[in-house]
Write a sequence for this structure.
């Protein structure tokens, strides 16, 4: 889309705003809105009962904002302060409320004054360089004072309306394309999981005779496969050591590191997920990683506990932590890549999650017995190798498609951000764009 520029520009005197149309002004947020941030009130059962069930609640730690103990039921701008559910890690994000909401104390609630159109302000805020307004010693925070200092390039009311209408229309089209790519990624992820699950529980031959595994949750398996408890194919199982480490990973080959539990998330071993061992502590070489070690997380959230991955090379200076189990298998019966793939299937995960224990869903544990007593279908080693080879090719193909979709989303988001920035700083004149589009 090729759009004209304005006829005359002037310096805004703000580096990241640059030059703006000569008739535009630059106004801080405090002169364009009223901030309605309320006081912190615990959300007790009585207050929860008073809240209509269909009213969105953006909360953290059951703390809410109140204005005269009522909902925010007008069209307001919601801007993330920190920790809000819609808070982008790179910067706050502004939303335009179209109905009642119950925001918490991590959300700034702004009511536009008559000099500013709310829909325009949302776009202008989302194009803001927040870096110079965010601070905080422990986590990023946009205070009310800093938010009120944010400068907004402000055209006339009619121009604000035209710009907002144009951006609403164009960003909706871009968002629709992003949604399609996200749906594609979800479908490809489902295909990936289904491919793995079918291969390691049904094999590659669709005509193979099947038999009852004798385990209700496992169902049928190929007739020539064995069904064994994992303890029958394991040579050893151990967990490692978790000393007080640095808060950063190793950066040199001669440094010792201790794995973090997340190194196996997603079924892929990530050696960079480690913490450096302090120089004053002596390493334990027996916990060093060897190629073929099967690592399983013993403590994590419900959806991640029991995640399994195989170490793909020797790591002499990287040690096992105590939140990971290391299994070494009898490879005359089962190769680690096959068992790791099976442990990621829905059937296996259902049993792991069922037997996980813990007082909080944010940290569950599984004992060694949960893993060792788990039943697994076991084909011959030769067939296991063929299955893993097939999965390697097929999963690489699916991952390539996912990567392409991710790249498309990145480009679309960049295009969206650039279009918003150009419009709200006057780098393009969109006043006639919508009229032209309807001709």
């Amino acid at each position: 889309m090729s759009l004209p520029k304005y006829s005359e520009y002037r310096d805004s005197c703000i580096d990241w705003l640059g030059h703006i149309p000569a008739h535009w002004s630059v106004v801080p947020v405090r002169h364009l809105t009223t901030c309605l941030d309320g006081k912190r009130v615990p959300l007790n059962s009585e207050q929860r009962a008073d809240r209509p069930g269909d009213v969105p609640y953006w909360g953290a730690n059951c703390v809410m904002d109140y204005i005269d103990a009522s909902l925010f039921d007008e069209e307001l701008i919601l801007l993330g302060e920190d920790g809000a559910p819609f808070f982008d890690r790179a910067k706050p994000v502004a939303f335009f409320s179209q109905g009642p909401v119950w925001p918490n104390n991590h959300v700034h609630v702004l009511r536009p004054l008559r000099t500013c159109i709310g829909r325009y302000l949302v776009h202008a805020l989302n194009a803001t360089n927040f870096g110079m307004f965010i601070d905080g010693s422990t986590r990023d925070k946009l205070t009310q004072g800093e938010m009120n200092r944010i400068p907004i390039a402000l055209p006339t009311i009619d121009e604000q309306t035209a710009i907002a209408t144009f951006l609403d229309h164009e960003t909706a089209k871009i968002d629709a394309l992003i949604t399609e790519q996200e749906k594609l990624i979800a479908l490809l992820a489902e295909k990936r999981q289904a491919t793995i699950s079918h291969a390691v529980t049904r094999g590659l031959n669709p005509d193979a005779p099947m038999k009852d595994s004798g385990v209700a949750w496992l169902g049928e398996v190929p007739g020539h496969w064995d069904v064994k408890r994992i303890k029958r194919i394991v040579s050893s199982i151990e967990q490692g050591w978790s000393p007080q480490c640095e808060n950063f990973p190793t950066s040199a080959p001669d440094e010792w590191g201790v794995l973090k539990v997340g190194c196996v998330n997603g079924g892929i071993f990530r050696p960079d997920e480690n913490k450096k061992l302090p120089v004053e502590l002596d390493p334990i070489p027996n916990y060093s990683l060897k190629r073929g070690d099967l690592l399983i997380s013993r403590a994590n959230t419900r959806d991640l506990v029991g995640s399994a991955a195989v170490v793909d090379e020797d790591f002499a200076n990287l040690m096992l932590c105590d939140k990971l189990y290391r299994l070494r298998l009898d490879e005359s019966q089962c190769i680690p890549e096959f068992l790791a793939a099976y442990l990621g299937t829905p059937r296996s995960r259902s049993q792991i999650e069922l037997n996980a224990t813990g007082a909080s869903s944010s940290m569950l544990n599984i004992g060694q017995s949960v893993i060792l007593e788990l039943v697994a279908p076991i084909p011959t080693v030769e067939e296991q190798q063929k299955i893993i080879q097939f999965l390697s090719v097929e999963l690489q193909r699916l991952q390539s498609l996912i990567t392409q979709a991710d790249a498309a989303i990145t480009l679309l988001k960049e295009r969206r951000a650039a279009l918003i920035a150009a419009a709200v700083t006057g780098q393009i004149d969109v006043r006639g764009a919508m009229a032209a589009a309807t001709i």
Remarks:
- Residues 189 and 402 are 8 Å apart (CA to CA).
- The chain has nine helices and 27 strands.
- The two ends are 16 Å apart (CA to CA).
